[in-house]
Design a protein that fits this description.
This protein is 62% helix and 2% strand. A two-stranded parallel ribbon has the order 1-2. By secondary structure, it is mostly helical. Keywords: Membrane, Transmembrane, Transmembrane helix. It comes from Candidatus Kryptonium thompsonii.
């Protein structure tokens, strides 16, 4: 069997030894590269040089106007859809402001209160800070311990502390 060590052994070429090898050695010494770093460095230099040559040779193909995509159709469609959405949003905000015109913030919030003793999971999830898991925990607590006597009792549910209660107390009721 042939040993690979001897199979891949090349004789140093006298032609390569002269100016190019000396130049590479001087550059490596000046930069302070190890042998491994030198191999990677010169590979990258050759790869970038090859890329630049390819770009220069085939660069004219990129200047071809037929290969560019026309986005104006999509821009017009985007503007059309944006205008439709803006119209719907402005109509809804006008309706909301008409429904609550002349009312103070406290009366508006009180119209959105949720009875924590009778609320379904979906209704509980409308309260700020209450997700699906927390809504299930509230319902489970209600089933095990009975109705909440006052809204502060919701802090007995695991996961609802003083901070969370302060954020949601304006949306809660027990009657």
């Amino acid at each position: 069997m042939i040993k690979l060590k001897y199979f891949f052994k090349f004789e140093k070429s006298k032609k390569f030894d002269l100016p190019l090898r000396n130049l590479i050695k001087k550059i490596n010494d000046a930069i302070g590269l190890t042998k491994s770093e030198s191999i990677v460095f010169w590979f990258l230099i050759l790869a970038f040089t090859f890329g630049i040559v390819v770009k220069l040779v085939h660069g004219d193909a990129a200047k071809d106007e037929s290969s560019k995509f026309d986005y104006s159709v999509f821009d017009k469609e985007f503007e059309k859809r944006s205008a439709e959405i803006e119209k719907v949003v402005s109509n809804k905000s006008n309706t909301i402001s008409e429904n609550f015109a002349g009312k103070d913030a406290e009366s508006v919030v009180s119209s959105f209160k949720v009875n924590i003793n009778t609320a379904t999971k979906e209704e509980l999830m409308k309260i700020p800070g209450i997700g699906p898991k927390m809504a299930e925990q509230i319902i489970k607590h209600r089933e095990v311990y009975g109705e909440f006597k006052r809204i502060e009792d919701i802090m007995n549910v695991k996961g609802i502390g003083q901070k969370k209660f302060e954020k949601m107390k304006n949306y809660l009721t027990t009657n």
